[in-house]
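Input sequence (517 aa), recorded before submission:
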Amino acid sequence: MTAPEPLLPAPADRPTRYGQLRDRVLGVAGGDRMIRWLAPLIITVLAAVLRLVNLGHPHQLAFDETYYVKDAWSLWTLGYEGVWGENADEAFTTLQQLPLSEKGAFVVHPPLGKWLIALGMAIGGPDSSAGWRLATALLGTGSVLLVYLIARRLTGSVVAASVAGGLLAIDGLSIVLSRIALLDGILTFFVLLGALFILLDRQRTIPLLEQRDPDSPDPFWGPILWRRPWLVAAGLALGAASAVKWSGLYAVAAFGLFVVVTDALARRRGGVVLWPTAAAFRQGPVSFVLLVVPAAAAYLASWTGWLLTAGGYDRASDADPLVALWNYHQSILGFHVGLTSGHPYASAAWEWPFLLRPTAVWVASDPAPCGVDHCIAVISSIPNPLIWFGGVAAAVYLLYRLVRGWITRHPVGAEVGLPLVGLAATYVPWLMFPERTIFQFYTVVMMPFLVLCLTLALRDVAGRRDDPLYRRQAGERTVLIILVAMVLVSAFFLPLWTGMSVPYDFWMLHNWMPGWI
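Predicted structure, token format:
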């Protein structure tokens, strides 16, 4: 029986079975030190331009900004979310007296994302719409860089990493959720940060578990590893994700399971006799402590303002602040479980792969002139359709390869596992709540993993290094055509992602499905 290949070999030792996009796509040698620095810099700057230019438009609270911006300023002012009076939204745009009371308000999301929004407001003031969105724009830009770094680690290729980062940089869903003060873009950043740290832990730890030592005093169990700083860092990052929205807890569980399974497979390759038991019941509890305890600490720390003040919702429900916090969390859980109210832009999770109902987060009631009689200005969270549907198809393709590889005992490369685990963590749990009121824009957390899947699939299309020359040339040209088409589609949709005033007929050309209106 052929032993599985190493989970994450060092980039220099990676097999070339899948090939890469040729270096001439960039016109330079991919290993050149200058390009290794220049490529991520250019991509990050592009992402920053698309997310930061004219960030203050529109100068009004758009969609659910009405909740998070007000909660953010309340946190900065009171240390907890307070109750707002009438005409609060208008007060933010005109800098009238803000009608904030000291009575604690019932809110259903943890505070960290709103604290980060508050930092931008502290810089620009409560009436600065650019200040409201500064944190989401910067973290959205950071998410692009994180995708580049993850792809670089997974593939060992500057070109593949540039494709992955570039596609996320120009994707509409990621752009919109970086230009609006909602929590999902912030959640995306911390989930990606946790995924990068998990990857770094795997690359550091797997070789230690795979070492075959015939003189080992414990060949039945293998080593127990406590010194895993990247796993601790992953716990802090994923705990921060959970402190933005509770859906971050799914990422903690999924990546924790990923760590245990990959530990087990590494022990198997290292000749450990009881490799499943050792990974689950000896190393497993240690990994749990290293991952979950820091995550819990990060989550609890996000509630410091509520714990150290006296006016927050349910703060007086018990003399012990931790018990009072537990009571509050029970109320939050009850809200989420019972959330079934209708909404015109609600979209069940099974609809998401088909992109049936993107969310319009802003529509101008009186748009600026656009050169014709009938103008419209909207901000719609439609992703780049080619990137979206290509990513969905690529994920199905990689899942097929993964299953087929294990059936035939020819496992695929390790780079397939992490994106699929990320997708499972950010999509599958939502399928369990078909009655919940949820939205298509939640998929912004899925988008980086879809881009990673798409990049890996495009590498297969481009061809392997040992393929005939005509095959590689045909594959590379096909990939180049696909990438150019994606860039052109992003340019076509950009006015709808940034709220430009356009002719009504031009806007209609973008509504490819009835649910996109």
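Checked by second reader. Residues 1-31 have pLDDT under 50 and may be disordered.
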